[in-house]
Amino acid sequence: FLALTVIQFRMLPDREGFPSAEPGGVLADWRTVVHNRPFLLFSAAMIGSYVLSFQVYLALPLQAHRVARDSGDAVTTALFAVSAAVAVVGQLKITAWARARWTSQRAIVYGIALMGVAFVPLLVGPGTVTGGFGVMGWGMALAPLFAAVALLGLGTAVVYPFEMDTIVSLAGGRLVATHYGLYNTVSGLGITLGNLATGAVWDAAERMGHPELTWWALAATGALCAGCVGLLARSGLLAAGSEPELAVVT
User: Fold this and answer.
1) Could you give the CA distance from residue 163 to residue 236 in angstroms, rounded to a whole number?
2) Which of 33, 88, 206, 250 would you call most buried, defined as having the most Cβ atoms within 10 angstroms of its Cβ?
3) CA dihedral in degrees (94, 98, 104, 109; nearest 10)?
4) Which of 163, 149, 200, 182 is CA-nearest to residue 34?
5) Which of 13-17, 54-58, 175-179 holds the top average pLDDT?
6) Alpha helix positions (H), 102-211
7) pTM
8) What is the architecture, at CATH level 2, of domain 23-234?
9) Cβ-count burial of 227 within 10 angstroms (0-12 exposed, 13-18 middle, 19+ buried)?
């Protein structure tokens, strides 16, 4: 992060700041943001997508250690590599492809739906593999896991740029950084609670002898999240150019 900060300091163009024309300071800015109902609804609807995307650090590594007990760390490292490769290699092409075919709102809905579908491959495949398994056995056991992380990365890549554009649109071009700050705060809280819930479901599913329940729950989360964003889009609340309500400071 320090290196990135130095690079940005040296490479970004100089720009002079300008005072805000709105009275009331930071408190008024926050009041304006929290009175932006479409933005708050969108923030809440998107929580599920962040819970799903974070499973590359929680549920998928747990599954890697469940499937490949003797090589769980190596498999987890490979999962991280695949996830990063999808973003680094495919992001621009994926965004261009989606932009040419869908509206921003539809791209978000389809991307989140794909993130939910990413957990479906984990419902199939053999259980734990050991050193006695041949190449075919390892491939059959690990293929659903790598398919899941690839689909999850693909769905995230579809959603992200259109999600960011939607935040700017809902901010009406005003107080964009403050909107981003609150959005990330809501997402962070959602990830925390979502991971607690995911862990609880994982343990409960293990006790019941039905580990597939975790994947059903995550897939359902994707369907629910996509449905909520779709409802907001159809209601017109995510329409571009909406202006947030100005806070009145007394």
Assistant:
1) 16
2) 33
3) -90
4) 182
5) 54-58
6) 104-117, 135-170, 176-208
7) 0.84
8) Up-down Bundle (1.20)
9) middle
